[in-house]
Amino acid sequence: MENYTMEGRTYRYYGQEAPLYPFGYGLSYTTFRYRDLVLSPPVLPVCANLTVSVVLENTGPRDGEEVVQLYLRWEQSSVPVPRWQLVAFRRVAVLAGREAKLSFQVLAEQRAVWARDWRLEPGTFTLFAGGQQPGQRVRAPSEVLSARFGVTGAARPLRGC
């Protein structure tokens, strides 16, 4: 095999075609609502980590568990990248009518792109938080929140941070 590109070989690179059973596919006995997605800081240096918080509320009549998923999208990149990349997830049990505030850390290395070596690049990124992939069509509704953040500084090798 001489062509190692992933384009057209995995659903992350298929363009607009969605996978049949994406990560997080399934149903629940209750409903959840996401709110208050906060990215801190909203603009960070190229080697810095991002702190993310989101509130998950169980709006249904039963106690339930939700898999909270965070996805990252590069708005521009010097090399081909996935439509979005799973960067964190956590299974959370929430009692009916209650809420949980969750915090995550998105490491700088999770923004790295492969360009003969792992590199960090400045630019604009979108972070998605929800119970499914962005744009996923499911039978049970699930919100996906999004927020943008910026990365400043010069591109540099990941090992240089």
Automatic annotation (TrEMBL):
SUPFAM superfamilies: Beta-D-glucan exohydrolase, C-terminal domain (SSF52279). Coiled coil: none annotated. Keywords: Hydrolase. Residues 66-133 form the Fibronectin type III-like domain. One of its GO terms (biological process) is carbohydrate metabolic process. It catalyses: Hydrolysis of terminal, non-reducing beta-D-glucosyl residues with release of beta-D-glucose. GO terms for molecular function: beta-glucosidase activity. It comes from Neopipo cinnamomea. Its EC number is 3.2.1.21. Belongs to the glycosyl hydrolase 3 family. This is beta-glucosidase. Pfam families: Fn3-like.
